């Protein structure tokens, strides 16, 4: 009777083998380049955030902050710091699209195009186990990559305060922080998996994932103002802006009467006698609709919930499609 030596033992199931076995071993082995790349992005990105935060704080401290108010610092220094911060935020906010295209779209489409999927499922691995392993591997790698980056970015943002930008809702700061970065990456990766299952071609899946992700995130940006109810404040027309409006995101601006009737902000501006026009209409107040910074986290979690729901729909489409369809391109 022939017995296998340790070198001949099955690497999938050999109990003497250290490290992952079975489908986990297969996922790591087949997708090791993608795994190592994502881990490198997480480690190097985290190190870069720590370095940039320290360098930025050194610059601000040398300029006199926080001893001096932010609005009294040299304008060139403040603009340089803010632009540098927003530039990194923009890069980080683009990461989910890259993960969706490079990892999500190619992960399943390559197996279907090259016949690997059919080969694996004709062995001792069921189709459901293989699909769950693929899905779990992709979503786990994406989560491990984005969670530390998003948390460190939030730590950086909190440390530089007013220099992180005031329009946090429409700047990339909103997308780059936790939990939006993580759930956006899960959404784009799920989208890539679903498109890969439908097209069964790597290049087509990557192109469609990029275009669809861009369209979906652009449309989502339009609906950000609906993530929460804006607050409203009235103050005398021509008076100094109340301190509560410092560093808020303005949604709309009106002029209004003492009874609360609102007119467009440009009402009476082009009239021959603006003061007489306002007096005739009873306009005495400037009215703002705005989001306060204390609403930011709640709006981010609301956006995260929507993205997770969309991801669940895409995962369901992915599993439904490949549980019944032939595993050939």
Task: Describe this structure as you would to a colleague.
With about 325 residues, the chain is of the alpha+beta class. The chain has two domains: about 15-220 and about 295-325, no CATH class; about 230-295, no CATH class. Helices cover about 60% and strands about 10% of the residues. The chain is built from ten helices and four strands; from the N terminus they run ααααααααβββαβα. It has helices at about 20-30, 30-60, 75-115, 115-120, 125-160, 175, 180-200, 200-220, 275-280, 295-325; strands at about 230-235, 250-255, 260-265, 285-290. The protein has a four-stranded antiparallel beta sheet with strand order 1-4-2-3. The longest helix has about 40 residues, at about 75-115. The chain is elongated. The two termini are about 40 Å apart. The model is unreliable at about 1-15 (pLDDT under 50).
């Amino acid at each position: 009777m022939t017995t296998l030596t340790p070198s001949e033992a099955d690497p999938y199931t050999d109990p003497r083998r250290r490290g992952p076995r079975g489908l986990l071993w297969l996922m790591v082995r087949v997708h090791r380049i993608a795994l190592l790349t994502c881990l490198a992005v997480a480690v190097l990105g985290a190190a870069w955030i720590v370095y940039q935060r320290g360098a930025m704080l050194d610059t601000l401290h040398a300029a006199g902050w926080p001893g001096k108010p932010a609005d009294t610092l040299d304008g060139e220094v403040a603009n340089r710091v803010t632009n540098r911060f927003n530039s990194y935020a923009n890069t980080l906010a683009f990461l989910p699209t890259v993960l969706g295209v490079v990892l999500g779209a190619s992960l399943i489409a390559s197996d279907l195009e090259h016949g690997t999927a059919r080969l694996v499922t004709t062995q001792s691995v069921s189709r459901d186990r293989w699909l769950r392993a693929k899905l779990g591997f992709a979503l786990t790698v994406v989560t491990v990559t984005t969670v530390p980056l998003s948390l460190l970015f939030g730590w950086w943002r909190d440390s530089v305060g007013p220099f992180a930008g005031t329009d946090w809702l429409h700047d990339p700061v909103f997308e780059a922080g936790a939990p939006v970065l993580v759930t956006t990456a899960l959404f784009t990766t799920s989208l890539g998996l679903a498109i890969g299952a439908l097209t069964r071609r790597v290049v087509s899946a990557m192109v469609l994932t990029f275009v669809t992700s861009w369209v979906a995130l652009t449309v989502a940006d339009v609906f950000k103002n609906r993530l929460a109810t804006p607050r409203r404040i009235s103050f005398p027309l021509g008076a100094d802006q109340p301190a509560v409006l410092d560093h808020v995101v303005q949604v709309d601006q009106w002029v209004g009467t003492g009874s609360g009737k609102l007119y467009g902000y440009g009402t009476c501006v082009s009239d021959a006698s603006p003061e007489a026009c306002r007096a005739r209409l009873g306009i005495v107040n400037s009215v703002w609709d705005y989001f306060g910074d204390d609403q930011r986290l709640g709006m981010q979690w609301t956006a995260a919930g929507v993205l997770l729901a969309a991801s669940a729909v895409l995962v369901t489409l992915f599993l439904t499609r490949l549980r019944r369809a032939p595993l050939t391109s």
